[in-house]
Amino acid sequence: MPDFGLIVRQNQRKQDFYAKNYGDIMEFFFQQLTNGLTVGSIYALIALGYTMVYGVLKLINFAHGDLFTIGAFLGLTLLTSLGLTNNIGTVAGVIVLAIMVVALVAIIGALLEKTAYRPLRQSNRLSAVVSALGASIFFQNAIMLIYGARVRVFPQNILPSTAVNIFGLDIPVVRIGVFICSLVMMAGLYLFIQKTKVGTAIRAAAIDQGAAKLMGINVDRVIMIVFMIGPALGGAAGLMVGLYYGKIDFTMGWIYGLKAFTAAILGGIGNIPGAMLGGILLGVIEALGAAYISTAWKDGIAFLVLILILLIRPTGILGERVAEKV
Amino acid sequence: MLLEIENLKVKYGNVEALHGINFHVDEGEIVCILGANGAGKSTTLMALSGLVKASEGTITYNGEHINKARAHDIVKSGIAQVPEGRRVFGTLTVFENLKLGAFTCDDHDLSASTLEWIYKLFPILKEREQQLAGTLSGGEQQMLAIGRALMAQPKVLLLDEPSLGLAPLVIKTIFETVKEINSKGVTIILVEQNAKAALKLSNRGYVMEVGRLTMEDDADALLQNEGVRKAYLGG
Ligand SMILES: Nc1ncnc2c1ncn2[C@@H]1O[C@H](COP(=O)(O)OP(=O)(O)OP(=O)(O)O)[C@@H](O)[C@H]1O
Ligand SMILES: [Mg+2]
Hints:
The complex is a heterodimer.
Chain A: H1 4-21, H2 25-57, H3 64-82, H4 84-88, H5 90-117, H6 125-147, E1 152-153, E2 163-166, E3 169-172, H7 173-195, H8 197-207, H9 209-214, H10 219-245, E4 247-248, H11 252-267, H12 272-292, H13 298-312
Antiparallel strand pairs in A: 1-4, 2-3
Chain B: E1 3-12, E2 15-25, E3 30-35, H1 41-49, E4 54-61, E5 64-65, H2 71-77, E6 79-82, H3 94-101, H4 108-121, H5 123-127, H6 138-150, E7 156-160, H7 168-183, E8 187-192, H8 195-201, E9 204-209, E10 212-218, H9 219-224, H10 226-232
Parallel strand pairs in B: 3-8, 3-9, 6-7, 7-8
Antiparallel strand pairs in B: 1-2, 1-4, 4-5, 9-10
Helix pairs in contact in B: 3-6
Bound molecules: adenosine-5'-triphosphate (ATP) and magnesium ion.
């Protein structure tokens, strides 16, 4: 005799599944979309580091993904050892934590530039690339030796697990928080680059280092500043990933780094608004692709995008906006 | 003497581009350096600006050795350069380019009056203030490059072939402006292929040949000189 109870339960589960995932097609779509926007904003933050360094040095900082990892692990250490969120409240605690992580990763970025890249500034491109790969291996191994090779878990219940209802859509507060924090950082960076004296100097050095020197710009300092801003944003992204997903491990920078790199290429490498656009676009493409094609293909989609962009428009979406007269 | 260059040698890798040159510039002068392609004129200016380093010799500016100084410190000390090929920042606006010229100046009021002066010298720059520098014509870009260098309020202005690729009328404007800049007390070193116009403008001139200075005289004398006439003035 068949176990009717089991069949009923199975049907129920199936119905729940459909109700949850396909019950409301629009809701499902928008959930994926908001998820994609949030993940994309994290890719964008990391992508900015690649693109800014490329802008001034024409070098891909392969260790950038690891700086992101360092941000996540430093966040975990500081969070658990200082207990900030318990002592001064959730919001203030997270803010102080973020400031500390950002500052520390920025310093590590500056040290990386000084030790791994500056001595090779005059040598050929390949030496710098090898040095970048070496730095990446160094960081990964250092993190593994300090924290171990296993997945580490962020303390639960630090951030509220509630959802807010927006236009009839239940969206987790944390998802919104991560998205807004990322946008605020990107807007801040954009204003800094566009409106300040140092920001303009960074853009000038990216166009023509020699001419920038003739303006009296200390190009070495500009490069160092870029190597602080990029890692600072990457470190903040690492911290947010830790807080948002709860799980981190020493290789996380590899896959995030590759995707952010893809995002930077997608937007046009060297182009700051391009990196923001590319990151968010990639996050959305990936989330929708995973939802409608297959989750198993989630990581593959990003690289499919990379290959397509390299074939169709290697300069990226915003690359080469202005043709320069010579 | 404002600038004194002694036995200056510059190497690119193993190749020596300047084989020990000597020259000097007095305050308020316009001095031109003439020479064929590849003679080492640009290299000389880049050495003065600190973008290439002297392998030997000294550069004395205002009584101080600056041959080891860093490029941005040299600009701050009062030597600005309008490089060969203009090298304006094409994706920045005209205004941003000019602002960058004043990067080393902290005094806002002074920069504002300098900007006003530059707009008077080149009114077209004011019209094109918000336009991207890369979209300017060649002559306008040259004006921007000069204006940008003036924003640093230099004591010495190095000009590397400002007439390159420009129409005769534009060249005339530029050379007249150079004269006017000089009349405001700015010392000028002018590198030119356009030898006749350059010599007419200058107080003194040097002739450079493959990494050596081979002639030095008053501009008028060089204009009359048989060798110079043959080599650089078309007979
Ligand atoms: N960056 C460089 N690397 C290697 N060699 C260089 C470099 N710049 C210049 N040279 C060489 O140094 C010599 C002098 O060049 P420089 O540009 O100073 O000449 P120039 O007198 O300004 O010529 P032009 O009138 O064509 O501008 C040339 O032989 C040139 O090939
Ligand atoms: Mg030259």
